[in-house]
């Protein structure tokens, strides 16, 4: 038996809890997360409102729960966009001739040098601020790091003798990419996806804070932070709760990524 | 003299190195510097040389997995030197390879039966379970081996799987690149015997590459000795081994430690005989 | 004279697996002993136990004593071991690239090896001694080069020079030439031989290559499945093997006298820790009987003997 590695376990538990919270929020939250009740504005945590209420009297716990859906949604969209573009680009770069590969990777570097948030703000300005546009932008901005990692993995696969054997048997490049390269870089894709997920969650929070992310009234951890600004001294808990939620989620996905990387690393793998 | 199965005429291969300076042109590595050889049908031809001598490059050029910078390669009467991939179908069917590293030569994500059937599928032959079982049997593996993954096998067994894959399209030429270098001594003998038997049974032409002249001598009829991108000596293996003429071959032969010589009292300074200095 | 190295009842385990069991091994002053075995035989783990460099979750038990060192080496703490390593006990590994620091000039590395143990009075004399040492391994001009500027064979020569820098009582070589070409191997082997002869150091040479052991060693121990199955003078063991494994190994590696087909040992080498109980070779042995389910006792003296229930007849030379 291989021993379980702690960061993998902790990461998986955190991510699992977030997914569970999001699922539960579809069927049950303590209160309607968007229900405004001026009578109980800025209530302190109590038995009826575990984490208190915000400036509109909305239940903070309910908002956090529903906000986890936004967090997962943005992660999925951003990582999906990044992987769908980044993986083929990386494999293509690894399999093409030297000059073509150079062209692909240098344009990749160009995009890498472009700040992700700026790109998202530009997208927001052009297509209107929404969770989807913001996340497509974040996804596009993470394509280069995906392409880079996948390319280096694919290059290693291309150097193996089983790819040579496949070529000697007459396999052409496209089937080689599909049958040999892609299955052997899946572990890299998984690792990169969980790390990018964390980046996307953070980016969404930042964009919502700046007003370019999830528009109201959909609850989002980032916007909860932004709305708590004016009460930073009178009711700091309003900033603390979403802040902690974001930190834990980012930590969870990063730990999961690290754990998966250790697990897939052939040097650490038990040779049977 | 019949037309040789493989004819290599004055082949060179240069690789550009990464540029080291913006002002100077990129330096080139001359991996092959005018190599010529002929392999007759049914022959067991050995190529011996040390790391970096160009033997692997030569193999890849013969298998059309790499292209010569100049010169000509003719396989079964067809000049393949500048043939595009789509016209190499005959070569992909008739010439197969077995590689050195039993870890990297099998795709870890594929089942053994899919690995063995791959050349058949590629070439549009029906890949029957029957044929796969037949191949597994030919290399001495049990039929249920097909359901497993490469990592469940030992080095010697993986090399058997490699050989089964190479034999799948019923090739006439088998190229083996250091097929036993990574194996334990007690398993090496099994794999050498297997290759020998299959070459006999299936009337294959064998090109066997190794850094170890004593293995080549055991397996091959004729040998070419390579050094620094050139063939320095060619001849019947027994003769090259017993009376090497080129200084490099002499150095190579005397450097091989052998049990009989060691037990007769040979020391390390005897291994260095023939070395310059 | 007492032995330079004395290993008694060495066992190496990783979690629930036993990788080396009951290994006894001695090396006399100036003696050259070979430890031969295939993958999973435990030969490298035996060497690593002696020098105390086993990986973290691998544990050694038993006794390892070195002449001139007052304490037991097994279980000795890192501080005590570091005083022994490189001074009385030195090791050459298979991979010369990883044994050298890529960011240091090789001359400084050799000089430092001597400064660590204060075998030279100061920096100046260390540099002088290093220059002389490099000169003796035929790399006089290499003082100021970095490891990556040298070839594999040149790097291994540096590693040998490093290992010999403090005139160790025992030099352990673990497959030092496996990654090298035969012509380079010849040079390294000669260098090791000259080096230990000049210093009267003892040598423990670990390899899978029978011919290499026969060329440089006086005595040989054959390991299989984590146990020593046969031991004795090279000339005896390699001409009149008694253990069936040694016999099979010799026949299978004899490319010289065999005709078209080589004699083989059936089956595969099991993965480490998965050898059978009793005689470790019984699953591949043509002579195995029910008796072999019990661990065969050691026959003969510790220096010359074997552990086999059905040994080859005593006077059957396989190498004419």
Descriptive terms for the model:
heterotrimer; A: 272 residues; C: 320 residues
Task: Tell me about this structure.
The complex is a heterotrimer of chains A (272), B (277) and C (320). Chain A has helices at residues 6-27, 60-95, 98-112, 116-127, 131-158, 161-168, 173-210, 221-228, 237-264. Chain A is mainly α. Residues 266-272 of chain A have low confidence and may be disordered. With 277 residues, chain B is of the alpha/beta class. Chain B has helices spanning 55-62, 89-94, 112-122, 129-138, 155-167, 185-201, 213-219, 237-242, 247-255, 259-263, 268-271, and strands at 6-16, 28-39, 44-48, 70-75, 78-79, 95-98, 173-177, 205-210, 222-227, 230-236. Chain B has a six-stranded mixed beta sheet, with helices on both faces. In chain B, helix 3 packs parallel to helix 5 (155-167). Chain C has helices at residues 43-51, 78-84, 106-116, 123-136, 152-164, 182-199, 210-216, 234-239, 244-252; strands spanning 5-14, 17-27, 32-36, 58-66, 89-92, 170-174, 202-207, 219-224, 227-233, 299-300, 305-306. The longest helix of chain C is centred in the middle third of the chain and has 18 residues, at 182-199. In chain C, helix 3 packs across helix 4 (123-136), helix 3 (106-116) packs parallel to helix 5 (152-164) and helix 5 (152-164) packs parallel to helix 6 (182-199). Chain C has nine helices and eleven strands. In chain C, a hairpin with a 2-residue loop joins strand 1 and strand 2. In chain C, the strands form two sheets. An eight-stranded mixed beta sheet of chain C has the order 5-6-7-3-8-9-11-10, with helices on both faces. In chain C, strands 2-1-4 form a three-stranded antiparallel beta sheet, with helices on one face. At the B-C interface, helix 5, helix 6, helix 7, helix 9 and helix 10 of B face helix 6, helix 7, helix 8 and helix 9 of C.
